[in-house]
Amino acid sequence: MTNEKTLFRQFCPWIGQPVRVQLQIGRATDGVLYCIDPETEDVALLVPSGQNNSEYSVKIVLAHDIRGVEKEPLCGFTSVGLPTLASLTKELAKGKECDRGEDAAVIHQRREELCQFLTNKFVPFEVVEDGSVRVFGGAATLREPFRLVECGNEQLLRQLHKLLDEFGQLHE
């Protein structure tokens, strides 16, 4: 692309939108614009990997292969009706809630049981506004439904996994 404006500056506002990437070889690729690397200008697209558009894969288009990018509604082509990234995220979140089958009351009860368990094990914790549980002064975080740990310290992570396994055996 020989434009003075970089791909990143030009198309960054379109991130999350359906686009068509025109390639130097005369073909085009349709997908949801996921990101543009500000240094290399390579473009990442979410492209449907199945016929029913329920599964997506990531396709990387190298900057030197890109002739242009068009926003889907303005392109005048009949695409597969790609959703926006926001609607994909919402759909995935809906699927997670259905898969878990847990409602707010169950999660609240599990949080209370976890807090009691941590108190009995003398693990310092605090429940934060988003409903997650921070342990050891924020060194690790337990998020709903309280089966996984976010922690940068490997040793602490192993110990917390052991505690969660013990908690899971007691409450399931």
From TrEMBL:
InterPro entries referenced in this protein's UniProt entry, alphabetically: Gemin6 (IPR009422)
Gene3D superfamilies: 2.30.30.100
Residue ranges the record marks as coiled coil: none
Gene Ontology cellular component terms for the protein in this record: nucleus; SMN complex
UniProt-listed GO biological process terms: spliceosomal complex assembly; spliceosomal snRNP assembly
Domain of life: Eukaryota
Transmembrane segments: none
Protein name: Gem-associated protein 6
Organism listed in the record: Peronospora matthiolae
